[in-house]
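Changelog note: in this version the structure field was regenerated for every chain. One regenerated record is shown below for reference.
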Amino acid sequence: MNDSFFGMDLHLGFTPDDDGHVFAGPYSHVDLQAYRREDVSPKSRDLQLVKDRSNLVQSLILRLMTERGELEPLGHPNYGSRHHELIGQPNVESNRNLLKLRILECLKQELRVQRILKLEVRNLDRGQNRDKVDVEITVQPKNSPDALSFILPFNFGGPFV
C-alpha cells in the first residue's frame, strides 16, 4: 500500500479518539497546528502537516463542512455538501433519510474513497437538544485494506439551538 496516495496538507486539528474515530462537525473549531522543530537551531515552531490516511479523514470532514457552491468563486462549484439545507427542518425520519442521502452524494465526490461501508444517522435522546443527531461514517479508501471511521454531528435546529 502506498500511503502517499492519500496526500498531505496542513493539519487543522482534527484528531482521532482511542478507537480511531474523528469527531467533527460544521461548527467545530479548527486551527492550524504548530509543532516545535528540534532539527534546527535555534529551536523554532513550524506548521504541522497531516498526511496519509489522516489527511483523507481531514479532507472528508472539510468536504462535509463546506456548503456546496461555497467554493464556486474559486472554480469548484460542486465541491461540498447540500446537507446544510436541512437546518431548520424537523428531526423526523424522512429528513434523517434526506440527510443521509445528501452526505452520500458528497462522499461520492471523493476519488480516494472506494466504497462507503457505513453511513448511519443516529437519533440520540438528548433531552432538550432533540434536534441533534450523529452521523457515523465508515469508508473503504482505495489502495488500503483498512477502513476509516468518523462521526459528524448535525443539528437540525442550527448551530445556536
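Spot check on this record: Helices lie at 52-65, 93-107. The chain has one domain: 3-33+44-155.
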